[in-house]
Amino acid sequence: MPIGSALDGGRLATPETLLLLLGFVGIWLGLLLAAGAVSLAMVPAAHAMSRAFERKADRFALRLTQNPGAFISAMRRLGAQNLAEDNPSKLAQWLFYSHPPVRDRIADARSFILD
User: Fold this and answer.
1) What is the pLDDT of residue 62?
2) Given this model, what pLDDT does residue 113 score?
3) Which of 1, 18, 17 is nearest to 9 (CA)?
4) How far apart are CA 102 and CA 80, in angstroms?
5) Cβ partners under 8 Å of residue 92, min gap 6
6) Is residue 71 within 8 Å of 109, Cβ to Cβ?
7) Among residues 57, 38, 35, which one has the least CA distance to residue 46?
8) In degrees to the nearest 10, what's the CA dihedral of 44, 55, 71, 88?
9) pLDDT at residue 68 tops 90
10) Domain total for the chain?
11) Domain assignment of residue 2, yes or no
């Protein structure tokens, strides 16, 4: 008994209909994979933009408070509390970090002291 013979006299599951259905499924899978690839490619760009905003926010906070010592202390505490990696690789920063690493933020604060 062919597929679909119980439904509509067997006309629903003709080879042409099955090929058409497989084609639609293939198109949807292709679109999902393409969307996933585009999303995956955009993540590093979004993280880079977020890190730039965070650096600007850090500089603003340092200019506003004029207290780099407190900023450095806060960054150390936040890094310890969040178990931040001390020296992440550039690749890890590029792929996964939406904020600058703690060591970079502390170095920026120290350079603010010198300015």
Assistant:
1) 96
2) 82
3) 1
4) 10
5) 85
6) yes
7) 38
8) 30
9) yes
10) 1
11) no
